[in-house]
Design brief:
Blueprint: H1 2-16, H2 30-73, H3 97-148, H4 150-153, E1 158-165, E2 170-178, E3 181-188, E4 192-201, E5 204-211, E6 215-224, E7 230-237, E8 247-254
Antiparallel strand pairs: 1-2, 1-8, 2-3, 3-4, 4-5, 5-6, 6-7, 7-8
Helix pairs in contact: 1-3, 2-3
């Protein structure tokens, strides 16, 4: 738990150092760092909820043992932990001083166990409350960053003017990024059109071009350049039956909103 407390302290310090969503433009890794921290917090919270349940079970079990021992010493007092109606005849009291000593000793042990379990339950409940507060702050900041700078989080989403070399054909890609997944539609000179699907990881782009007439026709690799407005890469045809080039280069420029 100590490592998590240290990490939590760093997280709160980072949040304090990031006063507004506009800071995302200065720190492009802010969202990634906060998203990773949110995942850590959620995992830790699940473990803390388990500890809270265990402490509660230990506390209630110790309370029941304490009630049993007190009832053994005072059989005329109904045991609130015992299910059903009180027995018609109360149990016989401790008959010897040894019986009484053992019952009192057992009751003291049960009381100590109950106190210890309750202390753990209180500590866990407090830690859980603090963890939920931290997670709430992180989620608020993540939401603010996404609203203020959506393009930094999904840099491929939008319309791109595309040029294919060596043919010089031009066209349009309309892309939608969801996390690392990319889908979209395209149109190219000559009446070619279809869908696109692929991925983007650390600025590296991979797309498959699925033509409405030819089916899966080519693949494109590329890199999103700094600034997020230009893509440069290479392409390769799957089929050469139509006599077209086997491979080449491509560029894409984002249209202004």
């Amino acid at each position: 738990m100590e490592w998590h407390r240290c990490l939590a302290g760093l997280t709160l310090a980072a949040l304090a150092a990031l006063p507004g969503a506009a800071r995302a433009a200065d720190d492009p890794d802010a969202l990634a760092a906060l998203t990773a921290q949110a995942a850590i917090e959620r995992k830790w919270l699940e473990a803390e909820r388990t500890r809270l349940r265990e402490a509660a079970a230990d506390f209630l079990g110790a309370q029941k043992r304490l009630a049993d021992r007190v009832t053994a010493v005072n059989p005329d007092i109904p045991n609130p932990e015992a299910p059903g109606p009180a027995p018609a005849e109360p149990p016989s009291p401790a008959r010897t001083s040894g019986d009484l000593d053992r019952a009192v000793e057992d009751a003291a042990l049960a009381q100590a166990a109950a106190s210890e379990a309750f202390s753990r339950w209180q500590e866990s409940a407090g830690a859980l409350r603090e963890g939920l507060r931290r997670l709430g702050l992180i989620e608020e900041r993540i939401a603010a960053l996404k609203v203020a700078h959506p393009r930094e989080q999904e840099p491929l989403t939008g319309t791109w003017d595309v040029a294919l070399l060596p043919s010089g054909d031009r066209g349009t890609f309309i892309l939608k990024q969801t996390g690392t997944l990319v889908t979209g539609q395209y149109t190219l000179q000559g009446g070619w059109k279809g869908s696109l699907q692929g991925t983007i990881v650390s600025g590296k782009i991979y797309l498959q071009r699925i033509d409405s007439k030819l089916g899966r026709s080519s693949e494109l690799d590329g890199f999103l350049e700094a600034g997020g407005t230009t893509i440069r890469g290479s392409w390769q045809n799957y089929s050469l039956a139509d006599g077209s080039a086997a491979s080449g280069a491509w560029t894409a420029t984002r249209r202004k909103d």
